[in-house]
Amino acid sequence: MIIRAIALDDEILALKIIENYAEKIDNLSLEKIFNKQSDAQKYLNKFPVDLIFLDIEMPAKNGLDFYTNISQNTKVIFTTAFSEYAVDAFSVNAVDYLLKPFSFERFRAAVEKIKINIDATDAKYLSIRADYKLHKINFQDIQLIEGLDDYIQIHLKDSTKITARSSMKSILEKLSEKDFMRVHRSFIVPVNDIKTIVNKNIHVSDFIIPIGETYKDVVMRIVNG
Fold this sequence. Notes:
By secondary structure, the chain is α/β, with parallel strands linked by helices. 28% of the residues lie in helices and 35% in strands. The chain has 2 domains: 3-120, 3-Layer(aba) Sandwich (Rossmann fold); 139-223, CATH 2.40.50.1020. It has helices spanning 12-22, 37-46, 63-68, 86-91, 104-120, 168-173, 216-223, and strands at residues 3-8, 28-34, 51-54, 75-80, 96-99, 125-130, 133-138, 142-148, 151-156, 161-165, 180-184, 187-190, 194-198, 201-204, 207-210. It is globular, with a radius of gyration of 18 Å.
């Protein structure tokens, strides 16, 4: 599997190092490099990627804030000269934290973690803790996932619901990317269960779900193949 990636850093030299390292890894495709956050955001709005190499201290917006505002399910490896952000980086589920200057071997080890992470999405079950126990839910049994502030509610096809403390971003990372799609800041749906799309609404199972403005381009591209 090819890992599609971009890199964002306000230092051109740092981007060139990542570009050089990426060329040496067979299954890593560094699609673009950016030194402006606005340009990177425009690209991400049109072309979803699997991974972003992301600096933290930048002129416009902190890299942590930039990542948490990405609507799609993109993994992140932070690349920074500042060690004090490590705890914050892993709190947003960063795959790795590369402290500049980092070696090619360290870079390759970080990318290997991504491969393991992506391979894990081939699983057929969602494991989540709720009601003081661990639930193992078959992907095929999920009708809809709804975001409720700091919680998510999983609607199952047998009409039961499981409510767990989780963010939408975190739960999306545990789902198969080819089987599930975020269509709104508050909704994730199974791709194969989509019946129709009418007037910016998705009809899935017995639900009518609005398509969020941020997600409409990605939704239409996936649905139209």
